[in-house]
Amino acid sequence: MDRKAWIVVILCGIGLIANMWWSSEQAKKYAEQQQNQPQVEQTSEEAETNPVITAPGSSAAPAEVVKPESVVEAQEFEIVAETGYGEDKEAERVKYVFTNIGGGLARIEYLDDPSNKHTNGPKIVNENSNFAIGALTFGNDIERGGYEVVAQGERFIEFRGNTFQGMVATKRYELVEATSKEGANYRLTVKVSLELPGEGVITTDSIGMFFGEIGPEIAEEGVQLSGFGWLVDGETDFTSATKFKGGMFSDDRDEISETLTNPTWVAVMNQFYALVLSPTSGLEGDARLIARPVNVTVEGRQPGDAKDVKAVSGYLGLGSVNVAPGTKKDFEFELYAGPKNYEMLKKVGGERQLVMFYDDMPVIGFIAAPFSRLLNWGMHKIQTVSVNYGIAIICITLLIRIVLWPLYAKSQKTMKRMSKLAPMMQEIREKYADDPQKMNMKTMELYRDYGVSPMGGCLPMFLQMPIFFGFYRMLQYAAELRHEGFLWVPDLSQPDTLDHVFGFPINVLPLLMAVTMFIQMKITPKTTDNAQQKIFMFLPFVFLIICYNFASALALYWTTQNIFSIGQTWWASRQPDVELVKKPKKKRPSLAELQKQRAAMSQGRTVDEEPKKPKKRQPRTGG
């Protein structure tokens, strides 16, 4: 590289470091402002007319609350799902803790979650909500009255109690009896029955059900990865929690709602876990999905890194409800509350694997999504043999590079031939320095004469882009990588931060990736195309920015392929040198030859065939 190029590279590096340091400082300032922000107190008069209940440490009011006529003592009831699967492997044990307040699921505890060894207790979903999953809503009100347990067993519990508009609700929660035990511990059947003991008829579309709250687990988890989504008529849609935050010309939003027709499922989720509610019967007409933000404080990987983030709570309208005395309105749902593991969700069924939202990526999502699914499948298959996910990622990377080997070898030959054209290219530049149009025309003639494609050297890199982004999306939500270690990396789903210098994280694998990529670019045969040279020069910095604070598994994949490419380039350099042979020009036919061809075609013969001579007629004889 020349002096100007080195200056640009150094400035880009300084800019990258400065940007990351500034972002870190801004995040700390924002967290301090949130902690020091004074709480707004309600007057007793306001509290009476607008009673609200908020999550611990939350400043947002998810909904108004129906005040019970008398104080009801809260009671909890536990059901532990511990179904095993496989010959020597057991599924994660899940504890469902139910409450009589609202007659629903207070929280879900994952007893064997890998994150438990780093915390004081089990991982919990719906931890920051004061509402039970399964609690009914009416408009902006949510029930908080006491329910009675009318039946309970090892795998089910049934509540009964008064609810809105004088109706009585019966709610039954039961572990799913799945034909496939894969993921069975994360599944619950939810049955809700509404009846009217008094007189009159209830007709309303204002009744709904709360189906849970979930948000980032740690401070470093991107808020944009939490949100809500749905599947309707085979089409998915995802909305990030960042949409609740206002912009330059808009205020923060207290809720986002969507009207859905016959939804297959609705969901709230964070990066690795999801609450997926699938209506199976009873839902009539359009259903309204409402998502609300919940302010929560989560801890970081480093002490003192706690910050306030947005969790998301979900409410699903029950459509048109018509209840008369002596009749019932029954609803049935299935709730999946577990990790976003693509292979497991695929076996669970109900198209729940689409909650991974692999195709929800701007521009190239539809291209990257098939690679995400294929790479996830391959990683799981290899992991069953190699045991370690780090080894599985390395193996699948090597398989990809072996498949691409012929293409890479052809690219290397093209670049060698391009480098041999350098002297002739320089002559053209000097000769036509004052005529760029003529220079380009002569350059293309040179490429054509020697049968060289200037884009041939970039082709393998372009073909790897969909694979890279497929890996990127797949690893972004791969719950199975959480707390899976490899070499010095404690968690392949997070950056491999060894230490901090002035608040800046030192992530080794992305730096190693950039170094190996730079070496690869240096030893690759140089092309005569300036545009290609500039692309190759800046690629290491582009990939460093993409991978630096991303899952270390992605940097492991790209570092492995860089090392493989270095070896491949070294091997190619030891092969016999390619010859630069000028392609023979096709001779253009002259005007006379063209006329001859036209005449031959009109007589139905080829040019080389002689025209048929007329037969000699025999002389006539008299007689």
From TrEMBL:
Residues 33-42 have a biased composition (Low complexity). Residues 389-573 form the Membrane insertase YidC/Oxa/ALB C-terminal domain. CDD domains: 5TM_YidC_Alb3 (cd20070), EcYidC-like_peri (cd19961). Residues 33-60, 582-623 are annotated as: Disordered. GO terms for molecular function: membrane insertase activity. Residues 613-623 have a biased composition (Basic residues). The keyword Cell wall biogenesis/degradation does not apply. Keywords: Cell membrane, Chaperone, Membrane, Protein transport, Transmembrane, Transmembrane helix, Transport. GO terms for biological process: protein insertion into membrane; protein transport. One of its GO terms (cellular component) is plasma membrane. Pfam families: 60KD_IMP, YidC_periplas. The chain crosses the membrane at residues 6-22, 387-408, 450-472, 502-523, 535-558. InterPro entries: Membr_insert_YidC, Membr_insert_YidC_N, YidC/ALB3/OXA1/COX18, YidC/Oxa/ALB_C, YidC_ALB_C, YidC_periplasmic_sf. Interacts with the Sec translocase complex via SecD. Specifically interacts with transmembrane segments of nascent integral membrane proteins during membrane integration. Belongs to the OXA1/ALB3/YidC family. Type 1 subfamily. This is Membrane protein insertase YidC. It comes from Sulfuriroseicoccus oceanibius. The lineage of its organism: Bacteria, Pseudomonadati, Verrucomicrobiota, Verrucomicrobiia, Verrucomicrobiales.
